Amino acid sequence: MLKPPEELTLKAIRRLSLRSLFVYLGPSLIVSMAYMDPGNYGTDIQAGQFFAYDLLWAVWLANLMAMILQYLSGKLGIATGKGLPELVKESLKIKKFVLPYWI
């Protein structure tokens, strides 16, 4: 749960070390590579050449769905204090069911 502002002291903030932030580096790099790789740009440029503005609705829809997912994940993180992967792992105990969520 969220702590009231008076409990958030400088000492609690200093406990955030580089090692604790390093945990988030792996998933963030994977996500950034999925969106920003050169192959993705090449495919986008080629699709734009062939289809012009015919597929623009798909871009709008994909961005809308991504915004909704980020919004809901943020609300979930604020309410529970945990990230989406942590909550999936807690709710699905069997490893073969958890693995597809990480891929």
Account of the 3D structure:
It is a single chain. The chain is mainly alpha-helical. It has seven helices and no strands. The longest helix is centred in the middle third of the chain and has 25 residues, at about 55-80. The protein is elongated.
**Could you tell me the mean pLDDT?**
77
**Count of the domains:** 2
Rough outline: elongated
**What's the SSE pattern?**
HHHHHHH
**Proportion of β residues?**
under 5%
What is the total tally of β strands? Answer: 0
* N-C termini distance: 28 Å
- As a whole number of angstroms, the C-alpha radius of gyration is 19 Å
**Structural class of the secondary elements?**
mainly alpha
Helix content: over 70%
Features:
103 residues; single chain; mainly alpha; 2 domains; 7 helices
Provide a short characterization of the protein structure.
The protein is mainly alpha-helical. It is 75% helix and 0% strand. The chain contains seven helices and no strands.
